[in-house]
């Protein structure tokens, strides 16, 4: 989908938004004020008018719409809010007659079976509704006639769709493309791009490199000054090495087929000992509770240790982070990295980039864990936090820099980081990092002054999904003889996740969600929705239903996002409503359920979302609401994902897939089908994990990748 299509998608007839916004004072929140057990207030912020390029125009405004705490200065902004939305008028927010609900029997297997059976039609569900009057909170309502319609169209930034069709131009309006201006805050119409997940990149047409955090500091009064300093992670050893248990299916990883393509691939290793890591690293691995390698580790570790570039694709939750961290650290130890000193310009040996703040923080914590007791210092920097804080972290010494792309480019622009010493460049969620949203920034990164050429550095790309187009683009980043490791089906879903797809029309989604959540009880559940507004809306709705819920999305302030994640992690809020900002990489213990209240627009996103459960050999469940009005484009790839993961495929879904079958459909449209192989189509070998691959030489024409 090109830009024009994107335009067509997001410029819709006027639909009013009715996001309840809350005044801080009225919250009946928990200790941290971040849960949603609150009394709704109101806000004129809800009247967004026509849903257009909201985030192009309102990057600063966005913050005001988020729920929860905010800095004192910012909270003042909401005092004059007027009522626009709330609860109650909507016809679809009435009582549900659950008395006949078969799911109330408490038998979980029955519940799931029942759910599949009861999957049926919207009509059958609406007939179960009782007649309770709507909840009346404020003026407006959840179900204002058009009910969810605003969410079906609004905030198209959340949409993805293949390579260049899914996201907005990264440097919107920049003109020269050299300007990175983040969260300019004033809605001054500079244009720009509110990233699908997290970063705000706007272009003013000036040749400047300006941080979202700098507004106040640099005298740009239009930009809000971001003062948030994340609390330091606990320093005690127990916390550093805290981990959860591998699940009953961990050993089954060994049976997954692994494909290695590219020439002269080193053989896989079967044990950590075979990696010949130094004693400190081995100690850290043991303290982390790792006794056995996962398949992606068996293959990737020797490849990286051999100095080869790598594109690795392995199912969600199967240990990709350690697969790159351990060999990189081993190299650094071998090279005798000395503790970096306090310096104004730091020159890290390794840069790791990931698309979301929470994910990069998680990777940093893993890096800190595995480098414990060594001279290697890892640092994390990401948007939404005080820029000065990032600088202070870096100047104290930095061997491994973990960063989100926006903050990384800012810090490079401020000359706090020199790139000359970079030997390892890691892109986690690499397909996301190379797509339309972040691809241009990554290209800038590799062409920054001082950045060693791809021949001089080692580049490592990891993800659970690798669309063919992205694989082709990746050639620009990788040496021509890079190796490709595919554990299982490229882009396939984790088999430990029991997937259920049910047909639910948009007007029935909320009540069905409540039914499911009531049956789930306190088990940790992530509920994915398609837009930020809807995340707030659903979280608020669930709290009204007395289901303790929090939310995470790109319009929440970073402090709120971290608080939300913390509340979810510790079980204080067992339900987390999220946009795709939380779809990738997050490794949260005990997430037993994922619910796609809205299906994402691409199958890859679906695979990542459901991969928040069923991690590391544990089992999980994912249930997805399929709305035939809007999700038919996903039927075909869904059938493939389900059958590849040996899941039941509903007959109705097959029918839809068949009726919407597009011959030659290969993936650039919204419901893109993942790649099945290394796109170089070289000779490859299929092995079960643990057995070395044969090496198949493949001539690769470098030019064909550039
Ligand atoms: N060899 C191992 N033994 C035990 N636990 C492991 C091992 N490797 C990784 N883990 C644990 O498995 C969990 C998932 O790992 P990780 O987050 O790296 O998965 P991932 O493949 O990157 O997933 P995603 O695709 O969702 O990003 C983590 O808690 C990690 O500590």
Automatic annotation (TrEMBL):
It is an enzyme of class 3 (hydrolase). Residues 512-657 form the Helicase C-terminal domain. It holds the Pfam family Helicase_C. One of its GO terms (biological process) is meiotic cell cycle. Residues 301-484 form the Helicase ATP-binding domain. Its EC number is 3.6.4.13. Keywords: ATP-binding, Helicase, Hydrolase, Meiosis, Nucleotide-binding, RNA-mediated gene silencing. The keyword Chloroplast does not apply. A motif (Q motif) lies at residues 270-298. It comes from the Eukaryota. It catalyses: ATP + H2O = ADP + phosphate + H(+). Coiled coil: none annotated. Residues 29-44, 685-696 have a biased composition (Polar residues). Residues 25-131, 144-226, 685-706 are annotated as: Disordered. Belongs to the DEAD box helicase family. DDX4/VASA subfamily. Found in a mRNP complex, at least composed of TDRD1, TDRD6, TDRD7 and DDX4. Interacts with RANBP9. Interacts with RANBP10. Interacts with PIWIL2 and MAEL. Interacts with BMAL1 and CLOCK. Interacts with Tex19.1 and, probably, Tex19.2. Interacts with RBM46. This is RNA helicase. It comes from Suricata suricatta (Meerkat).
